[in-house]
């Protein structure tokens, strides 16, 4: 049987935009690498999850009858099933059921064969019949639950796994499936409990370690995830997704060289694993190698043309390299595949704003906010776009909305403070810029001090203005920004 599991991905985002200054300094847009999201869909083949024939109880042999008896046909079917001759096994189980319709395990085996052949409707009919005859058949409950899982019927699947575990608390496979359902529904603590129980029951099961590693990544416990992926690799060195999962955890831990090594290993072991290229592309981008990143993202899309995360990431990298048309095309492709992606609208708006089309950017930011009314970064970006069109009060409103959604959003305080300065509200500007400076006590942004110096000068606080300008000048000089340094000295000369 095959399971589908959400494997953790690296995400990548970029805040792009520029706002013209009007007698004050505005920070240029900085590429902002978005920390990896929790997960994205990926197939995971988990072998050995079928109830094996050894787990099924065969009826007691009965006296021989002329010809093949029901029990004889059933036992023949079991032998054929064990040898992998499913077509012949079906004939035997058909005969056993014809001779004795009360043989619950004959329906169970036949249901397993139909499931293996992908005929889930007929499989469910047989498994339901097996359970009608034997309601406490844990194997039939597990088998039916696994089919419900494949069909996306998570609630029915979980109910079957729960009952199966009540009847057989040692069913490792049921713990794994139930943990998968909990993971997919965001109940990672419960998933980790089930995967841990499976590990206690079978300490040498690499699948359980891999799945727990994914769940631990969802909980941001990357050190423990690395340990689980490493254990899985120790047990079975040919697990490309275990290398990929460990590489993602290393990325989160800031160990980019180790992340790259594991992702290289994942690609070498499975050259068709699209998400390994996607994740490796993110590492390359973080290492300042955008050309390599684009190559990997192109390869990921060759292997899986519907991999939305790859379009999103490629659009981000293209935008960072000035290919704004290509970036817009990639974000548009994301929206074609997923029309409800607020992030894609926001990123597309960023590219449009960078290309100078503020009106179109505002439209995309508005769509993003319609989909996610608490998207603080989209409010901030729309504020930047409005400011670039001269709509200062609209910008202030958007910055205020961004702060309502995310009260610790320092960039929004800074932007709103600068906007207040434009409309001659120096007291409000002073409060916002001070909030940004105080909240980011280790800030090395000279523009914050420069802008507050301008505000203090307008408020008549020449001494405070001079202190801020001196701090700004020192930071501009340290960062090699000659234009900012000269502009600051010019302001100081006017005090």
From TrEMBL:
Per its record, how is this protein called by name? Tetratricopeptide repeat protein
Is the keyword Repeat assigned to this protein? yes
What are the record keywords, sorted?
Repeat, TPR repeat
Q: Where is this region: Disordered?
A: 25-45
Classification via InterPro entries:
TPR-like_helical_dom_sf (IPR011990), TPR_rpt (IPR019734), Ycf3 (IPR050498)
For whether the record's keyword set contains Transmembrane helix, the answer is no
Which branch of life, at top level? Bacteria
Species annotation: Leptolyngbya subtilissima DQ-A4
Instruction: Output the Pfam families linked to this UniProt entry.
Output: TPR_1, TPR_11, TPR_16, TPR_8
Q: Which stretches are tagged as biased composition: Acidic residues?
A: 32-45
SUPFAM superfamilies noted in UniProt: TPR-like (SSF48452)
């Amino acid at each position: 049987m095959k399971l589908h599991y959400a494997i953790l991905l690296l995400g990548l985002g970029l805040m792009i935009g520029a706002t013209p200054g009007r007698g004050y300094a505005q920070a240029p847009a900085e590429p902002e690498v978005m920390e990896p999201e929790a997960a994205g869909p990926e197939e995971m083949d988990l072998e050995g999850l079928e109830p094996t024939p050894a787990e099924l109880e065969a009826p007691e042999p009965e006296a021989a009858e002329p010809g093949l008896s029901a029990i004889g046909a059933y036992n023949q079917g079991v032998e054929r099933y064990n040898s992998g001759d499913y077509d012949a096994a079906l004939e035997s189980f058909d005969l056993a059921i014809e001779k004795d319709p009360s043989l619950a395990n004959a329906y169970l085996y036949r249901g397993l064969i139909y499931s293996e052949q992908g005929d889930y409707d007929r499989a469910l009919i047989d498994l339901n019949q097996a359970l009608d005859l034997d309601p406490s058949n844990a194997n039939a409950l597990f088998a039916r639950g696994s089919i419900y899982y494949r069909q996306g019927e998570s609630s029915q699947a979980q109910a079957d796994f729960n009952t199966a575990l009540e009847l057989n608390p040692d069913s490792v496979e049921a713990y794994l499936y139930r943990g998968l359902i909990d993971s997919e529904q965001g109940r990672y603590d419960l998933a980790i409990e089930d995967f841990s129980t499976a590990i206690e029951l079978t300490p040498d099961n690499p699948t359980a370690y891999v799945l727990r590693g994914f769940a631990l990544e969802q909980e941001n416990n990357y050190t423990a995830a690395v340990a689980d992926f490493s254990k899985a690799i120790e047990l079975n060195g040919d697990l490309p997704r275990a290398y990929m999962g460990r590489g993602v955890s290393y990325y989160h831990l800031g160990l980019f060289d180790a992340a790259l090594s594991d992702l290289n290993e994942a690609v070498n072991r499975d050259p068709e694993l699209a998400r390994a290229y996607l994740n490796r592309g993110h590492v390359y981008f973080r290492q300042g190698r955008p050309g390599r990143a684009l190559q990997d993202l192109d390869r990921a899309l060759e292997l899986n043309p519907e991999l939305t995360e790859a379009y999103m990431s490629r659009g981000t990298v293209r935008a960072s390299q000035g290919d704004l048309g290509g970036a817009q095309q990639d974000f548009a492709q994301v929206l074609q595949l997923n029309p409800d992606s607020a992030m894609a609208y926001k990123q597309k708006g960023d590219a449009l704003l960078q290309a100078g089309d503020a009106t179109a950017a505002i439209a995309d930011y508005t769509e993003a906010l319609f989909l996610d009314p608490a998207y603080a970064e989209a409010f901030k970006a729309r504020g930047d776009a409005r400011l670039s069109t001269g709509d200062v009060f609209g910008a202030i409103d958007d910055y205020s909305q961004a702060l309502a959604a995310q009260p610790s959003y320092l960039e929004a305080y800074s932007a709103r403070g600068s906007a207040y300065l434009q409309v001659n509200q120096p007291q409000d500007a002073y409060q916002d810029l001070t909030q940004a400076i105080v909240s980011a006590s280790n800030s090395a942004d000279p523009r914050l001090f420069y802008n507050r110096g301008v505000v203090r000068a307008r408020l008549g606080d020449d001494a405070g203005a001079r202190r801020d300008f001196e701090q700004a000048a020192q930071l501009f000089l340290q960062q090699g920004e000659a234009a900012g340094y000269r502009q600051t000295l010019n302001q100081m000369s006017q005090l």
